[in-house]
Design brief:
By secondary structure, the protein is mainly alpha-helical. The protein folds into two domains: 163 residues, no CATH class; 214 residues, no CATH class. It has a three-stranded antiparallel β-sheet with strand order 2-1-3. A two-stranded antiparallel ribbon has the order 4-7. Strands 5-6 form a two-stranded antiparallel sheet. β5 and β6 form a beta hairpin. α1 packs across α9. The chain is flat and about 75 Å long.
Amino acid sequence: MNRTLSALFSALEAVIVVAVGLAIPLAPLTVLWGAQYGFAPNWTGFWRLAADAWLLGHGTDILVTLDAATAKSSGLAGASTPFVLTIAVLGFSLLTVLLARRAGKRIAETNHRLLGEIVAIIVVAGLSLGVTVSAIGSSARPSIWQGTLLPTLVFVIGLLLARSDALPAWTRWRPDTRAIVATALRGGAAASAAVVTVAALAVVASLLVNYAQIITLYENLHSEALGGVALTIAQILFLPNLVIWAAAWLVGPGFAIGDGSAVSPLGTSLGPIPSIPVLGALPQGDFVFAFAGLVVPILAGFLAGALLSGSLAERIRSTGRLTWMLGAGLGSGVVGGAILGLLAWASAGSIGPGRLQTAGPDPIMVGLVAALELGVAAFAGMAASRR
């Protein structure tokens, strides 16, 4: 495939990634525009709403100004004052990463991989700029530079995941050092993945247990069928955030939904929150066995250390077993804490006016506590395995 065809193919792959992401909110909104509103309103308003959702899902800040009627009906303090939405609906980002990884693998099959990747990145940046500019309106104004840069960076992450090239510097490290660092990376990634997996199961269980409360909130909204479908899609895209919040709960620090609120193993203290049905799954009150959740990160770290100890011992030629176990174990904690802290940072932000400017976990606390729990547990798992 010559350079021109490679460039065109890569550009098409980039367009598909952006188009699929935008189609998820735009398709139900367009159906809602025709079926419920009879094509009467201007469709550009629905396009702006879909574009705002896509941009928000990639971390773009959006300045929101509610009209007087909407601000009064919301019942939220400070709703009449312009506020900034900063919460990233991570379902969009996750989709972009997965689609970009697929595009990267397809681009790698051409004869000009680097050229194709550069073209794809430029196309995504250009499309992101166009979407951002088109979404600017009187009620919502996304940040132009963030709307251009952040979706592009998320796309680049997907392209990097599609590459399997080893770093040249890695091969120049001492074998013992490579083994310890590799074990720390694998252990931290595995332990944090285990915590997130258990958190996802906990979210599913909470949704099932609180199903009646969620249905009641749906009924109180009095939305039409299509409006309910659009709301459900939006909540599904928000589920990755809830999973990360649940992981922060398992680690210990928990999360907040509004200033002065707290949802943690110590108990739940919530003030007024938006009537979003999925929030009906939040834990209420105190749980007698809530601290049992703290066993999850400890057990995850212990198992990761124990399972990786054998392969590490085979690759280490030095006799200082305690030293390499300590380095690999604590290194696993640092890696796992960094992963969970970054996820907590990505999942938090502002979800509304006033006290709702704060929502989600504290990334620093989550990262530090997770690093301590996972690191000590991984070292204990390695020591127990070697014995």
